[in-house]
Amino acid sequence: MSIAIIGAGYVGIVTGTCFAETGNQVFCMDVDEDKIQLLNKGRVPIFEPGLTEMISRNLKDGRLSFTTNLEKVVKNARIIFVAVGTPSCADGFPDISSVIRVCEAVTSSMNEYKILVLKSTVPVGTSEIIEGKLNRQTDVPFDLVSNPEFLKEGAALEDFMKPDRVVIGSHSLAAAEEVGGLYAPFVMRGAPVLVMDPRSAEMIKYASNAMLACRISFINEIANLCEHVGADIQWVRKGLGTDRRIGSDFLYPGIGYGGSCFPKDVRGLVQLGRKVGYTPHLISKVDEINQAQSKRFVEKILKFFSSGIAQDLERALKQGKKIPEHFSEVCDLWQLEPVKEIELALQNKNVAVWGLAFKPRTDDMREAPSTRIIPNLIELGAKVTVYDPEALDEARKVFGNTVEYASGSYEALQGADVLILLTEWNLFRHPELDKMREVMRLPVIFDGRNQYVRTDLIEKGLVYFGIGQ
Ligand code: NAD
What we know:
alpha/beta, Rossmann fold, 2 domains, six-stranded parallel sheet, 19 helices
């Protein structure tokens, strides 16, 4: 089958490469000339495990090519996937102008029957609106199919090639079957291909992301309550997750979710509801709780440095005393009265940050918690040094010269008053605790992802605060 992909971003590149891998002829098109040049040399502008190797193989075998020429790819392909971005507008509603522009341009270049597939996440009703527009624009026959994507960055190839389900929405059963056929090699183990109306297909994408975001905000609220009542979220999470009705996925407390999908899609769904006269109250709160979770993390750090504990710790270290376990009691921390002005508590403090990407195994920093937390710390007068194994180039675009960039995890810790862990890369899982204590000025860790065993760190003479513990 001859396939075109319009938009060579995270979704477009992965979709095109996986379809090429199963023997299709794939033409990927993007307006970004630099990106296309890189891709044609086999260099991949994003970090996604396994992707570079798969692209090189398919480029070499001639099944995959990259171009900026839209007309050519439309003429060559029977099925055309649209995978351009749909960022939030100022009011939170998705901006679908790129999707519409691409569909109109594709239609102008069509010479015979084509199937147009919307892979981009678009508000419910978009496929039908676009179908109507294009029908007025051309006499060339076409069918429109909604085929939302569920891949996770960091495991995108695996997700695409072993999907839980494939969702296809179309008023044309023949077109839906043809698109479904492309997925046949990926669903041989029995994953269902669900064919339905386009509106339901579009809604499944938003509902899935809202549900997952909801679970994260839910467990964050429970973790926050644990901090105040002295319960341990690590036990609570296990007790909850082993209930088969609940399950354990997406029940990990932290500093809030980020990325290019959850924040935008949750906001998009709320705005969609408002547009049609219905306020989804529960979903509206999910984003609010998420934003608050990042702020709360900074508040906790402020609490520590404005309380007497920070000074007691310095004193204990100078006197070579063992650091008392109660220094790590978060329950106490929330109740402590500040001994100095809370807004000044982080002035000139050296803050080391491990992890910047919105999650491990990606360099994507779109709406990453680090982009909320780090500017907040800088505003409070902290000197921030960051390290991430893959996202430093992206980070430079976001933070410019407002932070120092370290060349390794321990370099970031030199002279630090505190380490904050924001992304749970494997690399950070088993650090050398003795070395950390040696190079840091104060051995204090705020673990935004609950990666470390609290008792191990305390035993090694570190002060430790996780989330909800
Ligand atoms: P992206 O920003 O990484 O890529 C979009 C690409 O489209 C860019 O390379 C851009 O240059 C290109 N583009 C923009 N306008 C164009 C035009 N007129 N013609 C050709 N190319 C054009 O976006 P993404 O993360 O791949 O997301 C694409 C869509 O898929 C979004 O709607 C998103 O919500 C959805 N989605 C994303 C993910 C994810 O994990 N990233 C997962 C599922 C669904």
